[in-house]
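Example record for the data management plan.
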Amino acid sequence: MSEAVAIAGPVVFFTGAGMSVSAGLPTYRGAGGLYTNSDLEPPHAGDITIERLPGLWQRFRGRLEAGVELEPTPAHRAIAAFESSLEVAVVTQNVDGLHRRAGSSRVMELHGTLAEVRCLDAGHISPVRGIQWGPDGVPLCPECKAWTRPAVVLFGETLPPDAWRDATRAMSTARTLVAVGTSAEVYPAAGLIASGVCPAETRLWVNPETEPPSGDWTWLQGPADDMLARLVAG
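Corresponding structural encoding:
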């Protein structure tokens, strides 16, 4: 970033998997991404059955337990720091919960969060920290001891309506849009950054590899930690 970029509020940060790379989490579709060079299939809504739920949790358990120990990156903390001087909203495709842990107060988690589980019987939402695992390898609801599922959006499921509504509203009033670490390939979330939805006059694309999807973006080519630290510094 060779010259200063002015950021005016309200500002929306739209973040993807590249945001959390330096925390130790992989991207999904970039170079070396989890689904780029792998036969691994993304978790699907059809996995929420009595027969398949233990296998789903077998896939998620490592990520869930590792996520409890993850710390926000400098990029997460930089976004939180903007709140001291600007109106900020964070619209994230990530499920790691690191934006909230970094101190961001207005976060829309479009794909849910691995920080919580949801009871399959009564819909209770419980924090994952301290959860009891059943003998079948499925976490049990602290309220009623029923099986739970990850509180994330699986492929084939709709996005949370409240998060979608709030994200759309934030996009519609943004003067600055900063897209960080996203491939902009996962819909419907990626549609939020289209100019017809978000008419922000300043549009910044933070990504070390993937080019912006159109010519109305300024490409800040580099790691999220470095680029956002420079934005905070002005």
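Summary line stored alongside the record: Residues 38-69+116-152 form a domain with the SIR2/SIRT2 'Small Domain' fold (CATH 3.30.1600).
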